[in-house]
Amino acid sequence: MKRPNDFIFRALAVIASLSLAGLSLLVIYSVVMRYVFSDAPDFVEPIALLLVIVIAMFGAALKVREGGHIGLDSLVKSLPEKGQLAAHTFQHLCLIALAVAIFFGSLQMAETTLHDKIPILGLPEALRYVIPVIASVCIALFSFENLLTLFAKKHK
């Protein structure tokens, strides 16, 4: 499971990095066009919103893989070894449950908005919800990998 997740992790990192770079360039372009040429382009805002969704959702998945998500480390570190294992297990099970909820909620929204169009861009509105669907699958995979790693360490 580690090797496929390594590939997914690298792909998400590249996509999120390119999205961040693209967002930065888009904002600079928009500011220059608006304040220097008094001609604000209409397409910047919907593209920027899509890029922000990619950065936020894929970034969250990347942090789950790295173990950098929000946690109560000071509390967990003060627990005995079995308590730490239980806390980490609970944490990853909660992340998997959250990923499942995001998956089904976003999938339902994507199906509902499939025939609607994003104004100005003309792309399907469902695109906004496909991004969290992909990210939720990655979050679940990474959390499951972390669970397997936890229990593999325990049995050594």
From TrEMBL:
<comment type="similarity">
    <text>Belongs to the TRAP transporter small permease family.</text>
</comment>
<dbReference type="InterPro" id="IPR055348">
    <property type="entry name" value="DctQ"/>
</dbReference>
<keyword id="KW-0997">Cell inner membrane</keyword>
<comment type="function">
    <text>Part of the tripartite ATP-independent periplasmic (TRAP) transport system.</text>
</comment>
<keyword id="KW-1133">Transmembrane helix</keyword>
<keyword id="KW-0472">Membrane</keyword>
<dbReference type="InterPro" id="IPR007387">
    <property type="entry name" value="TRAP_DctQ"/>
</dbReference>
<dbReference type="GO" id="GO:0005886">
    <property type="term" value="C:plasma membrane"/>
</dbReference>
<keyword id="KW-1003">Cell membrane</keyword>
<keyword id="KW-0813">Transport</keyword>
<feature type="transmembrane region" description="Helical">
    <location>
        <begin position="85"/>
        <end position="109"/>
    </location>
</feature>
<feature type="domain" description="Tripartite ATP-independent periplasmic transporters DctQ component">
    <location>
        <begin position="24"/>
        <end position="151"/>
    </location>
</feature>
<dbReference type="GO" id="GO:0015740">
    <property type="term" value="P:C4-dicarboxylate transport"/>
</dbReference>
<dbReference type="GO" id="GO:0022857">
    <property type="term" value="F:transmembrane transporter activity"/>
</dbReference>
<dbReference type="Pfam" id="PF04290">
    <property type="entry name" value="DctQ"/>
</dbReference>
<protein>
    <recommendedName>
        <fullName>TRAP transporter small permease protein</fullName>
    </recommendedName>
</protein>
<feature type="transmembrane region" description="Helical">
    <location>
        <begin position="129"/>
        <end position="152"/>
    </location>
</feature>
<comment type="subunit">
    <text>The complex comprises the extracytoplasmic solute receptor protein and the two transmembrane proteins.</text>
</comment>
<feature type="transmembrane region" description="Helical">
    <location>
        <begin position="7"/>
        <end position="31"/>
    </location>
</feature>
<feature type="transmembrane region" description="Helical">
    <location>
        <begin position="43"/>
        <end position="64"/>
    </location>
</feature>
<keyword id="KW-0812">Transmembrane</keyword>
